[in-house]
Amino acid sequence: MKFAGLIGTLGVSTLLGACANIGAPGSAQSPSDSSAAFKLIATCAPLPKTANRCEVNTAPAGGGFTLFGDILVDEGVWKNGGVSVNAAGVIEAVGCIAPPSATKRIDCPNQIVTPGLINAHDHLKYNQTPPGGQDNPRYAYCNDPANVYQDAECANHRYNRRNEWRKGLNGKKMVVAPMDDKETTVLWNELRHIVAGTTTVAGSGGAKGLVRNPDVLALLEGLKVVDNKVVAYHTFPLGDTSDVDGRTDTCAYPKVATPGVLQNRVFLPHVGEGIDAYAHNEVACLSGRGSNPASPGVDLIASNSTFIHGVAVDKADVGFMKAKDMSVVWSPRSNLSLYGNTLPVTLYGREGVNIALATDWTPSGSINLLHEMQCAAQFNSTYLDNYFSGEKLWRMVTANAAKALGFSDQIGAIKVGLLADLTVVAPGGEPSPYLSIIKAEEKDIVLVLRAGAPLYGDSATIAALDQGCETMGDICGSRKSVCLAETGRTFAELKTHNANHYALALCRQDALQPSCTPARYRQYNGVASSRDKDGDGVPDLLDNCPAIFNPARPMDDNKQVDVCGKG
Question: pTM for the complete prediction?
């Protein structure tokens, strides 16, 4: 295409001169709330009015298309910008461009075009299970933070480490979540993510034809790897599936991962999921820093290591991780619903560790990334003093997640040479496109493309793309269609098989969805007061970071960690 490489060759400053009604970089709205700030690169020529949110204008055959809307790139926002995609599904130009004459034109005026969302951690074979797991009649009662704080029964629904809820240790309520690896179940669980605009999921498995599964060689859906090296997803990197007593003064676990795991594209283990010394010992032992010189563990901290959860860390741990340029995956809803706490995310942020956002699984986490972003945003505004901007939260499900999974050379950004994984989102009237994405509901997902091919979207738009897709009916007040040809299944077939499984979408914030309000029995209920404005149970006069939620934890001898840089 004649625009190939344009933005990479000319740069932003040159392209600014090619656009109409240009605003200077940085001249966009900058409200006092930094979460709403964004950078406008340029306003391009007005787009034609359309009858639908996106309208396809047919053109001569030849492959490729140009999609127009408000394009989110690393540098900022192209208002009325375009993304030209070739027949191979690769981005050839971005910015104020005209479409090559032999390609389709898709106009989405005022709609937001983001890289397809990336979920860096899930369990796709378990997401048919509803919140709380099976056989949990007191889940709804103990999902209420007020009850968690005041009722001793609900203390048994908040845990200190992972194996307490896995096995019902120490009198705790076991979370029952059986695996179902049938293809029709896994496809339904993947479709749940497609409905939310997600195109890649590291989910410990997968099925053919929908999202990219970066941890399964046969299910990469076009991602390129060298020597068959994919993401090495380890749920039990210490081998403690049955030996669940834990360790605090040794790294002699049943089967500790070896340095060979770093030969993979990325090492993606569950580490430090909890708030006690047992959970903290996992971090020490997988960074070669165990307290026992005779059993120090193995140093698996590297630039291609990404720790899932990483809740049980202190400042020294995070500094060590930053020095090795590793990443961490944050799942706030799941952490808060299980432990009443989450990773010290501002500490990770201050140290400069790359942070991705992910759902974990439906028994304790979010149904999809839209709801996970809303949980993170709520926690950020209520308990972190708006430490993260809307743009930074958005990057946690795009560029940061791509880096965490080792595929930032192919996905995670709208950039020349990358795959055209694109999601179009309705704006919703928010002051920034990032907040529109964060606050989006399932009905606001207009179009989802993987390498330029449609997967899902508004029925009128999908029909115009003429890819042999099928209608799904109403999804949260919007008529949608899905493209399942690659799966060899039909939507009716999937719907029938999963009739008794967890819903495909939540059309509102459901009270039964795991709570994002932190609470632990007789310690804190997450309610701010004039004496404790961050709701962490430590009075402001005694709190080392009174604006940032950082309760005392068992692993720290019930003292606070400095999460705000006060020294």
Answer: 0.93
